[in-house]
Amino acid sequence: MNDQVNHYLEQNADRFVDELKEFLRIPTVSADPACKPHMTRGAEFVYRQFSNLGFQAEIVPTAGHPIVYAEWLKSPGAPTVMVYGHYDVQPADPLDLWTTPPFEPTLRNGCLYARGATDDKGQVFTHIKSAESWLRTLGKLPVNLKYVIEGEEEVGSRNLEDFLNARKKRLQCDVAVVSDTSQYGPGQPAITYGLRGILAVEVTVTGPKKDLHSGVFGGSVANPASGLAKLIASLHDERGRVRIPGFYDAVTPLTETERQQFRDLGFDEAAFKAELGIAEVAGEEGFSTQERRWARPTCEVNGMFGGYTGAGPKTIVPSKATVKLTCRLVPSQDPVVLTDALHKYLKSQCPPSLKFEFTSYHGCPAFVFDPNSPYIEAASEAIREAWGVDRVRLIREGGSIPVVQTFKDVLGLDTLLLGWGQNTDNLHSPDEHFSVADFHRGIKASAILWQKLAEMSHSPSVGTANRIC
Ligand code: BES
Ligand code: MN
Ligand code: MN
Predict the structure, then answer these.
(1) Ligand 1 centre from 28 Cα, in Å?
(2) What is the pLDDT of residues 409-450, one digit of tens each?
(3) Residues 31 and 177 in one domain
(4) DSSP state, 185?
(5) Nearest to 48 by CA among 58, 38, 35, 63
(6) Ligand 1 first shell, C-beta below 6 A
(7) pTM for the structure as a whole
(8) What's 106-124 look like in SS3?
(9) Protein residue with its CA nearest to atom 15 in ligand 1
(10) What pLDDT was estimated at residue 65?
C-alpha cells in the first residue's frame, strides 16, 4: 500500500482508538425512547468526522432516528463505492453482567470493551479512518465514496428504504461495502457472501382481565402462561423442524457443492460447544451446525414473560403472557408471506378461552452475493495484505443486515460484507468488545481496498465496473 498512508495509520493508531472511545461513550440505543437525545448526539459525532475531512455531509432527519449521509466525489472516472454502517446499538442490559459499564469504553486484554465496540461503531469507524488517512496525506482518495450511516439498523432499518428511494439518483454507485459481520475466527479473515433474512413478531395471550388468586380461581379459568407455553411448543416437531404450514416451501436447498465448501472450511465443534457452555449442539435433523446457522431457516423465542417474575412465590393466575419471536430466513423465503403464515398458525393453535394478539415488527429477506465477483477478489487482496495471511475464507453468516437486499432492490447494488469482528466479541451480549488489532487491521484493509477498487476499473474483465450480476 502507499507508504505515506501506511505511515499515517501507524502514527495515528492511538488517536483512532481514543476517538472510537468518544463515539462509544454515546449511548445510542435505538430501541429505547429515552435515548432519543443521544441518537442526535451520535449522528452529530459521525457528521463531524466527515465534515472535518472535507466531505459534503448532512444529517438527514427521518420519521425515526437520523441518517448521516456524506460524499466525496473528486475522483472522476474512478469507481464510486457506497459504505454503509450503523451508529445505533442494542440495549445494554443485563447491566450487572458487564465487567465494566457498557458506555465507559475500557481497554482490557488488547480489546476495547463497550456496547457497540464491534457492532457496529468500531467496524464502521475503520472506513472513516481509512478515508482520513488518504485525505490527510495525499489530499485525495483513489475512489469516490458515499457513506450512509444509519441509526435504526438494530430496530429493522424501518426508515432507510424511503431515504434510498428518495435519493436514488444521487446514490448511484458501483458496489457497496459493509463491515458489520465477523471473521471466520481469530486471524482468519473472511468475506461473507450470504446472510439470512429475518421476521420479528410478538404474541400476547390474555385470559382474565386482571391477575387472580390461584387458589380461589385456579383450575376454573384458562391460564395464559400455560396457553402460551403450548403455543411455543407447537412451533417445532420432534425432528427440530418448524411446523408453520408452508414454512419450507420456498427454501432454496443447499447444493452438494456448497455443503462441501462449508465442510472444507473446517469447524471445531468441541471448541464451539465449550465457547457457548453447552453440552450438545441442537437443531434441525440432517444438517450440520454450519448449515443450521448459515443456510437453514429457524424460528426462535427471543423472550417470554407473564405473571409474577419477582423474588419468592406469589400465588396468581396471570392475566397475560407474551412471547417475542424471530424467524431467520434463507434465500427465496418471503418475510411478508411467512409472517402471515406464522400469524395464522399460532392463532389456530391458541385455545379459544384466551384472547390472541399478534404484532409484526419488521422483516427482511435473505441475501446472497455472487462468490465469483471480481469485487470479491479485490477485497480479498486488500484483506490478505492487511492481515498478512495468504487465505481469505468465503463464508455465509446467520445474522441479518436488512440494507443489503434494499441496496439490491432500490439501487441495483451488490454488497461486499467485510467483517472485521469475531462472533465471540459478545455482540448483543454483556461485555461486548472489539480487538484493537482487528480494528487497526480493518482500517488498513479498508485503506488498501480503495486502491484495489480503483485499479479494478482499469482491468478489462470489469469494464465500467458497474453491475456485476
Ligand atoms: N451486525 C449484525 C448482523 C450480523 C452480525 C451479521 C454478525 C453477521 C454476523 C446486525 O447489527 C444485527 O444485529 N442485525 C439484526 C437484524 C435486525 C433486523 C434487528 C439481527 O441479525 O438480529
Ligand atoms: Mn450490526
Ligand atoms: Mn446488531
Answers:
(1) 16
(2) 999 999 999 999 999 999 999 999 999 999 999 999 999 999
(3) yes
(4) B
(5) 58
(6) 119-120, 153-154, 156, 180-182, 198, 362, 397, 399-402, 427
(7) 0.93
(8) EEECCEEECCCCCCCHHHH
(9) 400
(10) 98
Q: Given 363, 380, 410, which residue is the final one in a domain?
A: 363
Looking at the structure of the chain, the number of domains it has is: 2
Q: Of 179, 391, 173, whose CA–CA distance to 264 is shortest?
A: 391
Listed in sequence order, the DSSP H helices in 108-254 are 121-135, 160-166, 224-233
- Supply 215's cell numbers: 387458589
Q: What is the pLDDT of residue 457?
A: 73
For range 382-405, the mean pLDDT? 97
136 with 233, same domain: the answer is no
Return the pLDDT at 458: 67
CA 272 to CA 25: how far, in whole Å? 32
Are 243 and 235 within 8 A, CB to CB? Answer: yes
* Same-domain pairing of 409 and 331: no
CA 372 / ligand 2 centre spacing (Å): 25
Ligand 3 centroid–CA 86 distance in Å is 9
What's the domain range around 234? 197-251+297-363
Among 178, 180, 438, which is best to mutate for testing ligand 1, by the most ligand atoms less than 8 A from CB?
Answer: 180
Would you say residue 174 has pLDDT above 70? yes
C-beta separation of 141 from 133 below 8 A:
no
